[in-house]
């Protein structure tokens, strides 16, 4: 908690993040390169799903990150509303497009896997539908950011929406499960096969960590950009006020 | 405090009935949507009666969501929202009164008209009452989830589609249980009461969460 309070100073955050960023990006690069090498050339093709199993190495980390970033946004939302942490809404704003991108990646890779395996790009399976609704919630949050002009006010409004969404996500998941079992047996599409083999688990874990570091690096970049954007905005307002004053003095003189 | 609560309720009901553009427009919109569906699907009565509950629920959902952006915007523009904020009445109760008024002028008429519109989509007679009951139990959830969205965008000059975009994903559970309760009345393996009780629970939870969140949003916009 103490370190979080320390980071409340944007200048200090900029300094720390400038140091951390290359390490995150570098580690992500190394792990992703290693993970993709293992996934493409070392991991065997699945005896049932063939080469399409390699899609899973992107699909699963994307799904996990889509959920992780929403959780992070909910925590940031608490930070905005309860502790009034000045960087919380910056973190929240920077996280939304990244989370949306990962849920989209999850959906698209899922579709590419589904075509050869299920014979269709899309089925209204419970899990697919939940991720799609999560994606829509992300889009709503981004839309609200874009419609409200003043950053701190937009931050608080989005924080409330994020928390309401966070309460709703488990309810949506539960109801979609109910709806799905009502319509079609989900078991058809379950990979009820063997538990995952070590030769596949290892690259999956490496890639999961790699993608997480990549996402965190992107998040840091986005946060830094947002802080800069707000500084520019403040400076522009100051400058406009100064010119306004000068003009008023000129008119009086 | 009770007087202030009822004053807001009475004022909103009077505005909705006299100023126009409120509840009755939602009803007309509901009717239009239900009429449009057969043009898209074809006049096959068997198909229409099978998906009748879904059509009615979708129509009611859209009719509720479309008009929601005005729920707080008018009050924000003419300054009455500032008076409400400054009054002794807790903002939560004020939001509750406004949400209740919205439901009384939108959700309640929609639910009462649903059996009539059910005739248009050849809804079987035994499904009329359950569909109306599910709409009666489910529309409060729509009004109050929507109130949160409306409160978040109260100060916007160009609201429009943003409220439905924000709110629609959150209404997925209501839609699922509303339609499945209506369908279970038409036959099927699950008893009517199971999804119906969950629908009631969703409504009650939405009234609490929606009221608190909308009040928080209105406070932040200050």
TrEMBL record, chain A:
The chain crosses the membrane at residues 20-42, 62-83, 95-114, 126-145, 157-180, 200-223. Keywords: Cell inner membrane, Cell membrane, Cytochrome c-type biogenesis, Membrane, Transmembrane, Transmembrane helix, Transport. It is a multi-pass membrane protein. InterPro entries: Cyt_c_assembly, Cyt_c_biogenesis_CcmC, Cyt_c_biogenesis_CcsA/CcmC. One of its GO terms (biological process) is cytochrome complex assembly. Its main location: membrane. It comes from the Bacteria. One of its GO terms (cellular component) is plasma membrane. GO terms for molecular function: heme binding; heme transmembrane transporter activity. Residues 6-183 form the Cytochrome c assembly protein domain. It is found in: Cell inner membrane; Membrane. Signal peptide: none annotated. PANTHER family: CYTOCHROME B_B6 PROTEIN-RELATED, HEME EXPORTER PROTEIN C. Belongs to the CcmC/CycZ/HelC family. Required for the export of heme to the periplasm for the biogenesis of c-type cytochromes. This is Heme exporter protein C. It comes from Bosea caraganae. The lineage of its organism: Bacteria, Pseudomonadati, Pseudomonadota, Alphaproteobacteria, Hyphomicrobiales.
Automatic annotation (TrEMBL), chain B:
Coiled coil: none annotated. The chain crosses the membrane at residues 21-41, 47-68, 100-123, 129-154, 161-180, 192-218. One of its GO terms (cellular component) is plasma membrane. The keyword Cell membrane applies. It holds the Pfam family CcmB. InterPro entries: Cyt_c_biogenesis_CcmB (IPR003544), Cyt_c_CcmB_bac (IPR026031). It is a multi-pass membrane protein. It is found in: Cell inner membrane. One of its GO terms (molecular function) is heme transmembrane transporter activity. One of its GO terms (biological process) is cytochrome c biosynthetic process. Keywords: Cell inner membrane, Cell membrane, Cytochrome c-type biogenesis, Membrane, Transmembrane, Transmembrane helix, Transport. Belongs to the CcmB/CycW/HelB family. Required for the export of heme to the periplasm for the biogenesis of c-type cytochromes. This is Heme exporter protein B. It comes from Bosea caraganae. The lineage of its organism: Bacteria, Pseudomonadati, Pseudomonadota, Alphaproteobacteria, Hyphomicrobiales. The gene is ccmB.
